[in-house]
Amino acid sequence: MAKREIRLFGDPVLRTVCDKVTEIDSGVQAMVADLVETVDEPGRAGLASTQIGYTLRAFSLNIDGHIEYVLNPELVEVSGEPVPTGEGCLSVPDLWFEVMRYPYAKVRGIDLDGNEITIEGEGLKAQALQHECDHLDGKLYISRLDRGARGEAMRQIRTSAWF
Q: How many CB atoms lie within 10 A of CB 66?
């Protein structure tokens, strides 16, 4: 449909716990098209529905140029020891902090035909799966930072040109 503007920190939609998709209609199809088109840019690994103004559980991924999406994703498995992982977010531009993430993650959901799908991966894909699921639960990655790093993130946000 269209590339959408990314919602930035401070927009209340980013704190919304998303509703499950209960009916796959033209609105849901348009949302998925927007997610897929908007994530299709260099440097974008994932995009949650809230980041473009929707409040239904859906996200898209763009890992190594492979674009996919999932409706009603549930993080069903993580494994390994959480490790500090450099992370940023399109909704909190120009910030980069270490976040504890599991090295493997698996998400289960459905596609536009209502078929169950599983997306799993390691490294960047595992990180993106965890990050996007957080978005759908109304959490930004900076909420996972320790107190000192979160304070520094807030300082950088307050002094940023985009805030």
A: 8
Rounded-to-integer distance, Cα 159 and Cα 163, Å: 7
**Which residues, including other chains, have CB under 8 Å from residue 45's CB and lie 6 or more apart?**
61, 62, 63, 124, 127, 128
Catalogue the E-assigned strands of the chain: 46-48, 58-63, 66-79, 83-89, 92-101, 104-110, 116-122
Q: Single out the catalytic residue among 77, 122, 132, 152.
A: 132
94: exposed, middle or buried (C-beta count within 10 Å: 0-12, 13-18, 19+)? exposed
41 is catalytic: no
Encode burial over 97-106: b for 16+ CB neighbours within 10 A, e otherwise.
Answer: bebebbbbbb
Q: How far is 35 from 132, CA to CA, in rounded Å?
A: 12
Say what the pLDDT of residue 92 is: 97
> How far apart are the C-alpha atoms of 71 and 21, rounded to whole Å?
7
Residue 1: the pLDDT is 60
Point out which residues pair with 120 in neighbouring strands.
Answer: 106
For the chain, residues with pLDDT lower than 70 are: 1
